[in-house]
């Protein structure tokens, strides 16, 4: 139905390309408001322009003030009264639409929802897939894989300042705040890569705090989950063995975990399956050799103010390290 | 050139120059201040209860403020309204002697209130930096301390003025308004006292 | 109908009137010389200072915006570092909201115009008025000095915790922001009290409540709102400062503090704040539409009730700024309903204005163009306001460029357009000269077109996913073209403001002489000369209708019998404006300036040390005592002539 949509935009970070029921409900309400307000705007402004043109006084000087014309004022009263009634009716319509949409969003199935925990950090997203069996728990960063067609419960909080989790193709945003646990239920009905971005000013690198929600079939999702739960791949080649050593002997271990090694710090993103992600630095760079190298050497030159310090190492050490990291699928 | 028309004159020369209550513009100024500061107090009290709603133990791990000093101050405040009201009424009649005596008495009460307030602060049983409860209690009473101190200075200055030869009708207006502002300070102490001293006892948790 | 032309031109005065004018001039003239500038207390003097200062801040904030638009014209640009950009957008927003919008729309306009419009010689509490101006200027200076020292506020104009708190806001940047609030809030509250007293007690005899000009109704509504709204930000900024400097724990969740407490307190103020800016805009529009439609405004009662209703309802909406925090559904429903319902009184005003135009004779001079522009721009903003009032939609557009577009449409449409109209309208009164119509039209069209080019695309780029407060964006998001269009639009806005400045400076020197009432308007300020003398009116007027000059009787009385050797004034009763008492305004004095200096030292000092307030309060107390200490000669004169009210 034409009235249920507005001109769309095929982006992967937009509410006008809904891929799930939540974003779809919202788009309908958006469309309702759009058509009503656009019509009202045009009518009111047209009336204004017509009256200005009709009543325009063309001589140069200010004419004497008009005496009040009671009968014309009475007519105007009726028109204004009518306009007020129409205004109230339209506002009510939009309001009811808003309540209906809100209700639809609120009644999305919570019980059978698949829970994913998201923790906001300055300036990255810590993602956990909790599991009753501890060795099946998955910890990753900045990229959430989700099964298509299954209600998801994003459960979140912040580890520092207020952030906001927002993937517009899927749902509206929810603030992640320290001292508060929050839940938002959403669902993705189409496979694809949908981009999200922090939507609450959180400091120096708020502009570079994005994430990807990768929706895939249940089968693919379960496979991904299984792979993510595994410990990190042991380095095999000489270069990657050296690379692991570089990792373990530099400041990297102060902040990053690679499960299966001694590195267990939770300050920064979990790197156990770094190579399985398509971007690094919270959606800022593609996960390529060159980007990785640049980032490791001097993250400050890409994301000034972020918490990762520059790292001193020789060219060989860097090459080995990157080679090792690229094996962490 | 406009038509010159002779206009009649509305002669106001017989109107009073000294008037009290709503006929004094400074009265309205004082009411305006009460509106603002009253709103600050109300929002602070609301903040206290908001913070209370976010924790289960209140006050957290410590005793509520000792009752004695706060209640003593409450008593002093309430009693001070008697000389206050007396001199306020005499001020409307221009009774210089009465206003002088009244202002001195209320100044003395004010000083006593400040002294007792010092002991109240020593017996709040919390520091402001421990947690949100401590911060809320200290800020709420601190706002009242601010009002008490500024009103006391105000009152003392006015008292001194009343012993000079600068006294005129306007100063009697000031005296009435000073009494009104003192009532504001006293009146707001009642809910603040109840919140600081009694809310933790009544709410238990 | 006889329009009673005021006796403005001294050539038309009788011998008696000239002598009277000379006596009034002797009593009311402002002191000259260097120190005289710091002793001035007359409301037109202070009002002009407010206008000039607020406009200067508008220009500064506008320049900051220009650099921001340059940075955003190219993806991943390096014109501004992230740190600089964050300071720029914070300074831009804070300057516009705290140093321009309210000081201009409320303080400047009401300080200059309200006493003239109600027919009295001065604003109530003139020394407080001077003090409020100095505090405002000093606060703004402090804020910009900090910025120039690379310690400018950078946490957004609302400075949320914990980002602005002690853990994540190192240095002094948020402290300067919080103290800016303290300076500007004291200033606004002071003026609010003055406006309320002026409007309630100093009106000309005959100006009963139902004859008060709509402009004055608007400003007094705002004054009441200021009294009840500002305490929210007083508390939130004080708690922020205390957390940062004294180790309180208001916002530390680990020990029972709460980050949302800050938001509730801030937005309790923050929502009414935008109405503090918008309502004076509607007050100006009512005035301009009346004068340029040549008839009494249609629906006076509805307009007044709408203003008052808006004032009340504005206090019930604040949580709509917090929809994304996950509030309970019942709260969502209430705040959505309230946020939509406030459109009703606003809609009523719009329909009344259109009805006035539809039944009047429309004169299309510059002020009226700005009023028409207001309709186009503000109503668009009002429409997008309905989008953000709906919770589900807001969850998509909150904190994106869609909402940036929304608030620029309502604020620029609702305040800047009326303001530029007000400049063109009242410039003749303030300076005695007309502005150029031609330059005025050029300014209007450049600004109108430039504004839409700059801000309309923001709706689109916001729906396409661009969040706000980002110092840059990736090239592959599809946002680049829209950003570039927006940045180009800025150029037109810049040129428009330049043309406006040229118009102002040229007209001040060589504009056509205006006379007392070039627009043949109806309100009392047009009964004084242009510019008004320091005593405002030679003869204090009485009033016979809502448009005092249009409705004046042929033998409309003037007030007589006030002392002419002192700054005498008349107070009238609140409801029916019958004469009540006589009183005396204080004359020029240096104490308000000194008190402002002492207060500034205390406020700024407290950023650096807790002794700032405690020790700093001593000079403040001294200057305040000096201020209020009576002058012997004046006291004796008054005592000799006292008439006490009968009890």
CATH architecture verdict of the domain at 67-204 in chain B: Up-down Bundle
Number of domains of chain A: 3
Q: Largest interface, counted with CB-CB under 8 A? A: A-C, 89 and 93 residues
Radius of gyration of chain A: 28 Å
Annotation keywords:
heterotrimer, B: mainly alpha, Four Helix Bundle (Hemerythrin (Met), subunit A), C: about 650 residues, mainly alpha, two-stranded antiparallel sheet, 19 helices, about 0% strand
Give a summary of the structure in a few sentences.
The complex is a heterotrimer of chains A (329), B (205) and C (647). Chain A is of the alpha+beta class and 329 residues long. Helices cover 35% and strands 18% of the residues of chain A.
Description:
- The complex is a heterotrimer of chains A (329), B (205) and C (647).
- Chain A is an alpha+beta fold and 329 residues long.
- Chain A has three domains: 2-57 and 69-106, no CATH class; 114-217, Cupredoxins -  blue copper proteins (Immunoglobulin-like, Sandwich); 238-325, Immunoglobulin-like.
- Chain A is 35% helix and 18% strand.
- Chain A is built from six helices and twelve strands.
- Chain A has a five-stranded mixed sheet with strand order 3-2-1-5-8.
- The mean pLDDT of chain A is 94.
- Chain B has a domain at 67-204: Four Helix Bundle (Hemerythrin (Met), subunit A).
- In chain B, helix 1 (25-52) runs parallel beside helix 5 (169-203) and helix 2 packs antiparallel against helix 5.
- Chain B is mostly helical.
- Chain B contains five helices and one strand; from the N terminus they run E-H-H-H-H-H.
- Chain C is mainly alpha-helical.
- Chain C has 19 helices and four strands.
- Chain C has helices at 15-28, 33-39, 43-72, 82-118, 126-148, 173-201, 214-245, 259-293, 300-313, 329-341, 343-358, 366-389, 391-397, 401-431, 437-463, 480-510, 591-608, 611-628, 632-641, and strands at residues 540-541, 558-560, 568-572, 579-584.
- In chain C, a hairpin with a 6-residue loop joins strand 3 and strand 4.
- In chain C, helix 6 packs antiparallel against helix 17, helix 8 runs parallel beside helix 11 (343-358) and helix 17 (591-608) runs antiparallel to helix 18.
- Mean pLDDT of chain C is 96; it is low at 1-10.
- Strand 1 (9-11) of chain B pairs parallel with strand 2 (558-560) of chain C.
């Amino acid at each position: 139905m034409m009235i249920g949509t507005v001109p769309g935009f095929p982006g992967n970070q937009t509410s006008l390309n809904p891929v799930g029921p939540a974003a779809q409900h919202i788009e309908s309400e958006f469309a309702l408001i759009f058509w009503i307000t656009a019509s009202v705007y045009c009518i009111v402004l047209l009336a204004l322009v017509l009256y200005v043109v009709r009543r325009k006084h063309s001589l140069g000087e200010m004419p004497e003030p008009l005496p009040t014309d009671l009968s014309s004022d009475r007519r105007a009263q009726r028109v204004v009264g009518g306009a007020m009634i129409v205004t109230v009716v339209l506002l009510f319509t939009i309001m009811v639409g808003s309540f209906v949409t809100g209700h639809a969003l609120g009644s999305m199935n919570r019980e059978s929802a698949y829970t994913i925990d998201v923790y906001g950090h300055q300036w990255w997203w810590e993602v956990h897939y909790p599991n009753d069996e501890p060795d099946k728990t998955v910890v990753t960063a900045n990229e959430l894989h989700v099964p298509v067609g299954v209600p998801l419960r994003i459960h979140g909080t912040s580890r520092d300042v207020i952030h906001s989790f927002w993937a517009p193709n899927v749902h509206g945003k929810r603030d992640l705040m320290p001292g508060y646990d929050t839940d938002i239920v959403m669902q993705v009905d189409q496979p694809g890569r949908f981009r999200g971005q922090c939507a609450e000013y959180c400091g120096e690198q708020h502009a570079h705090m994005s994430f990807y929600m990768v929706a895939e079939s249940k089968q693919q999702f379960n496979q991904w989950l299984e792979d993510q739960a595994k410990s990190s791949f042991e380095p095999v080649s000489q270069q990657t063995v050296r690379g692991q050593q570089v990792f373990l002997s530099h400041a990297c271990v102060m902040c990053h975990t690679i499960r299966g090694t001694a590195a267990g710090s939770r300050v920064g993103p979990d790197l156990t399956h770094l190579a399985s992600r398509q971007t690094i630095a919270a959606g800022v760079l593609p996960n390529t050799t060159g980007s990785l190298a640049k980032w490791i050497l001097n993250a400050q030159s890409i994301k000034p103010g972020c918490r990762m310090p520059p790292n001193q190492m020789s060219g060989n050490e860097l090459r080995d390290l990157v080679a090792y990291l690229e094996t962490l699928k | 050139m406009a038509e010159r028309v002779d206009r009649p004159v509305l002669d106001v020369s017989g109107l009073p120059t000294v008037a009290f209550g709503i006929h004094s513009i400074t009265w309205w100024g004082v009411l305006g201040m009460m509106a603002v500061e009253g709103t600050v107090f109300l929002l602070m009290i609301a903040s206290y209860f908001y913070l209370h709603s976010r924790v289960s133990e209140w006050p957290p791990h410590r005793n509520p403020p000792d009752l004695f000093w706060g209640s003593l101050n409450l008593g002093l405040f309430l009693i001070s309204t008697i000389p206050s009201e007396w001199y306020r009424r005499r001020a409307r009649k221009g009774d210089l002697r009465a206003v002088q005596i009244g202002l001195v008495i209320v100044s003395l009460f004010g000083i006593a209130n400040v002294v007792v307030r010092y002991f109240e602060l020593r017996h709040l049983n919390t520091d402001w930096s421990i947690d949100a409860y401590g911060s809320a209690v200290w800020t709420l009473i601190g706002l009242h301390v601010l009002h008490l101190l500024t009103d006391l200075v105000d009152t003392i200055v006015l008292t001194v003025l009343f012993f000079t030869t600068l006294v005129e009708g306007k100063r009697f207006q000031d005296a009435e308004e000073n009494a009104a502002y003192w009532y504001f300070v006293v009146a707001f102490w009642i809910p603040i006292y109840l919140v600081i001293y009694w809310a933790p006892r009544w709410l238990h948790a | 109908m006889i329009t009673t032309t005021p006796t403005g031109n001294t050539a038309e005065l009788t011998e008696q009137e000239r002598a009277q004018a000379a006596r009034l001039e002797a009593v009311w003239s402002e002191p000259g010389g260097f120190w005289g500038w710091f002793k001035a207390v007359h409301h037109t003097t202070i009002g002009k200072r407010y206008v000039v200062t607020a406009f200067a801040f508008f220009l500064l904030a506008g320049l900051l915006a220009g650099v921001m638009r340059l940075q955003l014209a190219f993806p991943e640009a390096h014109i501004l570092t992230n740190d600089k950009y964050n300071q720029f957008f914070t300074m831009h927003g804070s300057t516009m909201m705290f140093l321009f919008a309210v000081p201009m729309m409320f303080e400047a306009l009401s300080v200059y115009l309200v006493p003239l419009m109600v027919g009295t010689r001065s604003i109530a509490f003139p020394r407080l008025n001077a003090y409020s101006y100095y505090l405002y200027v000093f606060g703004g200076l402090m804020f910009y000095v900090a910025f120039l020292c690379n310690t400018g506020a950078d946490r957004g104009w609302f400075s949320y915790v914990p980002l602005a708190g002690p853990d994540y806001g190192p240095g002094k940047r948020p402290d300067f922001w919080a103290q800016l609030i303290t300076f500007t809030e004291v200033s606004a509250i002071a003026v609010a009290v003055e406006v309320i007293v002026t409007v309630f007690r100093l009106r000309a005899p005959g100006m009963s409540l139902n004859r008060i000009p709509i402009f004055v109704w608007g400003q007094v509504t705002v004054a009441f709102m200021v009294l009840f709204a500002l305490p929210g930000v007083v508390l939130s900024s004080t708690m922020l400062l205390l957390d940062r400097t004294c180790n309180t724990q208001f916002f530390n969740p680990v020990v029972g503090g709460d980050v949302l407490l800050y938001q509730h307190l801030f937005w309790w103020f923050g929502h009414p704040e935008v109405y503090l800016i918008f309502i004076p805009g509607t007050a100006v529009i009512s005035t301009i539409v009346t004068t340029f439609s040549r008839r009494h405004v249609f629906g006076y009662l509805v307009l007044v009730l709408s203003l008052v209703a808006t004032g009340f309802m504005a206090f019930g909406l604040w949580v709509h700024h917090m929809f994304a925090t996950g509030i309970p559904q019942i709260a969502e429903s209430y705040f959505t309903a309230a946020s939509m319902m406030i459109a009703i009184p606003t809609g009523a005003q719009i329909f009344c204005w259109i009805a006035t135009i539809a039944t009047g004779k429309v004169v299309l001079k510059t002020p009226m163009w700005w009023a028409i522009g207001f309709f186009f721009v503000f109503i668009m903003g009002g429409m997008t306001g309905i989008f953000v009032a709906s919770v589900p939609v807001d969850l998509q557009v909150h904190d994106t460029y869609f909402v940036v577009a929304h608030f620029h449409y309502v604020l620029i449409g609702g305040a800047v357009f009326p303001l530029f109209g007000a400049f063109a309208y009242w410039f003749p009164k303030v300076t005695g000269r007309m502005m150029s119509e031609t330059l005025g039209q050029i300014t209007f069209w450049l600004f109108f077109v430039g504004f839409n080019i700059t801000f309309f695309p923001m709706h689109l780029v916001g729906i396409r996913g661009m969040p706000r407060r980002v110092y840059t964006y990736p090239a592959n998001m599809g946002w680049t073209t829209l950003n570039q269009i927006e940045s180009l639009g800025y150029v037109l806005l810049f040129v428009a403001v330049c043309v406006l400045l040229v118009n102002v400076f040229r007209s001040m020197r060589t504009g056509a002489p205006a006379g007392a009432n070039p627009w043949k308007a109806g309100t009392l300020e047009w009964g004084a000369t242009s510019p008004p003398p320091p005593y405002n009116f030679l003869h204090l007027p009485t009033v016979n209708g809502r448009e005092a000059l249009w409705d004046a009787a042929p033998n409309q009385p003037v007030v007589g019998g006030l002392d002419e050797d002192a700054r005498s004034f008349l107070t009238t009763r609140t409801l029916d404006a019958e004469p009540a008492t006589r009183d005396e305004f204080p004359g020029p004095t240096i104490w308000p300036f000194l008190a402002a200096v002492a207060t500034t030292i205390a406020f700024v000092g407290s950023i650096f040390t807790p002794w700032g307030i405690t020790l700093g309060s001593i000079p403040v107390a001294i200057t305040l005592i000096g201020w209020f200490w009576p002058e012997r000669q004046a006291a004796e004169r008054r005592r000799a002539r006292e008439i006490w009210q009968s009890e």
